[in-house]
Amino acid sequence: MEFATFADRVAAIDAESADLEIVAHVRDLFADAGDDLPVVARFVQGRVFPAWDSTTLDIGPNTCYEAIARAAGTNVDADDVEERLAERGEIGDVAASYDFGGQQGLGAFTGGGGDSTGSSGGDDLTVREVDETLAELAAAEGAGSQDRKVDLLFGLFNRCSSSEARYLARLVLSEMRIGVGEGAVRDAIAEAFDVPEDRVERALQVSNDYGQVARVARDAGVPGLDDIELELGRPVQAMLAQAGTVTDAIAEWDEAGVEWKYDGARIQLHYDPGGETRVFSRNMEEVTDALPEVVEFAAEALDEPVILDGEVVAIDEGGSPLPFQEVLKRFRRKHDVAKAREDVPVRPVFFDCLHAGGEDLLEVPLTSRHERLESVLAARPDQNQDPAEVDGLSLLWLTDDPDEIEAVDADALEAGHEGIMLKNPESAYSPGRRGKNWRKRKPDVETLDCVVTGAEWGEGRRATYLGTFELSVRNGDDLETVGKVATGITDEKLEELTELLDPHIAAEEGQDVELEPAVVFEVGYEEIQASPTYSSGYALRFPRFVGVRYDKGPEEADTLERVETLQGK
Ligand code: ATP
């Protein structure tokens, strides 16, 4: 296909605002794309490379401005391009405002050339040439590569008409913005080649390659689409979570899957004992070289080809996780990885298994995927077989008991992680979807300021710290208990709280400590329930420590009346 034809069709899409019409245009474009279908399917979304491929053109806007300026003629420079950009606000408009002339005139002179499938014998720029040139440009590296990139880009602009230049500039700078999203491409493939949308969707989720899926849909129909499988080394989009509550999760699923929500950064591990180990970030960027610990873990722990989903966490010397920003810094580290590794050592924890034993597991229920994960991670004879001791395994609890969930949450917080994830035990793995099958805890809408009226001494290495604080609210001149918060915060914070509360200890019995009302904690919670457990008649479900209200005394803490009002909400 000539690039001019592509640009005309894209201009028609650009001018359209109705979704159905956009899909119809894309459908027709796909039907007419011939051998260039895979490229067209990417370009129309503004993608130069498949979604799974983290190759980038690695050019800044200035490289593009310079190429445009050179193609536009001797009296234009990059500053001129930038000035026009300031006026017009959009690079496509700027590129289209120049008269490149170039080969366009020559093409017209020689009668054009090229056919609609792209095997051009003449001088008209084709979609394939743009694709090949951009691939060459992306591959240029080393000394002089920036000049080479400008030359290659200049070569393309030099052969563009203004409407071609408009969309070439937008493509190169990842600013296509013609309203063609993933959904539109999926629907257009289904309509153009008469295949069901859900089969296209599955194939897209598995391959992350719109070009490949479009071609297979056309050439091999549904059986071909169903044959598309996960490939080791090609990342899959991460399944995501919605906000939700424990109460809703139990009501909807009978039993909820509960896992720790680790405070780290998402990774996807592709391991092949006979081949490569590759690690990808949540955005499908390759981070293998930055995370040698994960590669070593795979070599030590795994026996078979697998794709695992998990989190890397950084644990400090005291055993608490470092903030996830520290972990993220590791992802970006290209040089001195050994030094970075000393400063912030990371380790992986896996919570899902997408492929094992030559089998794709996306459509298998979570519980079975988790069993597979467990067996994959415990495969080595020297590995402890007790799940709680298996290296790199995130545990999954199945329960309908809110108290058990609360205990898991408290443990996770205590260990310095973020709390819990709730998962539908029956659910498939849906790449890229933020569905209802994975839930993270809702952020606190309201918090309560409670007086700390009791505490417990910790155990083991926390024996000298107070923890598990009893919370009370005011009722006239009295204080009534509403719950306990196991702070789940760092040892440093516990130390600080212990120092703060120690002078107010009124009585002690075993580990239990009674405190004079003096300190006020701000506490978040999921909901307030009527409960005989506490003297107020109410209990905070899933209380979380937010902070100390240093600015408030006990007489300014929240009241039972407020608790009653909030409970009705
Ligand atoms: P979002 O993904 O919602 O844009 P985010 O990246 O901050 O935001 P959250 O939504 O808060 O993440 O939580 C989902 C993330 O939690 C996952 O992407 C993963 O990195 C992390 N996580 C930690 N533990 C787990 C677990 N057991 N199961 C799934 N995800 C987990």
Structure commentary:
ATP binds at residues 259, 266, 282, 311, 351, 434, 440. Keywords: ATP-binding, Cell cycle, Cell division, DNA damage, DNA recombination, DNA repair, DNA replication, Ligase, Magnesium, Metal-binding, Nucleotide-binding. This is DNA ligase. The chain has 569 residues and is α+β, with helices and mostly antiparallel strands. The chain has 3 domains: 47-172, DNA ligase, ATP-dependent, N-terminal domain (DNA ligase i, domain 1, Orthogonal Bundle), CATH 1.10.3260; 240-441, DNA ligase/mRNA capping enzyme (D-amino Acid Aminotransferase, Chain A, domain 1, 2-Layer Sandwich); 447-567, Beta Barrel (OB fold (Dihydrolipoamide Acetyltransferase, E2P)). It is 40% helix and 20% strand. It is built from 21 helices and 19 strands. The chain has helices spanning 3-14, 19-31, 37-43, 61-72, 78-88, 91-96, 102-109, 127-139, 145-157, 162-172, 182-193, 197-207, 210-227, 246-253, 292-301, 324-332, 337-343, 366-377, 402-414, 491-501, 560-567; strands at residues 240-244, 256-260, 265-271, 277-281, 306-314, 346-356, 359-360, 397-399, 420-423, 434-441, 447-457, 466-475, 478-485, 505-509, 512-515, 520-524, 527-530, 538-541, 544-548. Strands 11, 12, 13, 14, 15, 16 and 19 form a 7-stranded antiparallel β-sheet that branches. Strands 1-10-9-2-8 form a 5-stranded mixed β-sheet. Strands 4-3-5-6-7 form a 5-stranded antiparallel β-sheet. A hairpin with a 2-residue loop joins β12 and β13 (478-485). α2 (19-31) crosses α11. It starts with a helix and ends with a helix. It binds adenosine-5'-triphosphate (ATP).
